[in-house]
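Lab manual, section 2.4: Encoding a predicted structure.

Procedure: take the sequence of the chain (236 residues), apply the prediction step described in section 2.3, and record the output as structure tokens. A sample record is shown.
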Amino acid sequence: SAWLFVYDTLATNETAMQLPFRTLEAFVPVCHVASAPLVMVTHPNTPYRSFQDVVDAAKRAPNTINFASSSVGGLPHVATALLQEQGGFRLVHVPYRGTMPAMQDALSGAVPLFIAAAVALSQPIRAGQLRPLGVTTRLESRHVPGTKSFAEQGFANFEAPTWFGMLARSGTPAPLVRQMNEALVQVLNEPAVKARIEEQGCDIVASTPPQYGQFLAGEIEKWGRVIRANGITADS
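Recorded output:
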């Protein structure tokens, strides 16, 4: 049997890249391993002291404020598209080829807003080189202390954490899937493993296969709608 470790772009790529397969037909859910917040940041020299400042400025002058992400159609991109839908404002997406080039421009102030995994931004945030404006978890995250979630800032029910999971090839016997899940959950609950994962800015989920299947179906539907509504494609 084949086992596949996947992350959140699986849910966005099904629509943005028009994959030639349906994830939940080609694979069997094994375990939702962990999740982690995205965080939107700005350079300290910008006038944005809060995310509401960004919203207000973007409403006054739509499509004039740039935000950077690591790619087209990735979770940071589509999560920000959903924020714009909910808030009724428009930003300009500036896609980069990876997190590090985007971070360099955010640190220099060349781009005013940047959204990425909190673990990638924790050091410059602590050093005061970047100012956090909001996290994409449902509530404030311990990985970005003192920073409210977007849901807590008025974006009702907004939630867009990055995540990691394991799948098996379609047709893998159910007893084998359960066995793999139980073994993986046992490892994830070992104190040393848990501590190491949490040090990387993640929170362990350790779900059952049905729970992960339900979560994954929801992610594919949710982000597929946002991608279609905004005309996002991998080459856009």
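Check your result against the sample. The mean pLDDT is 95.
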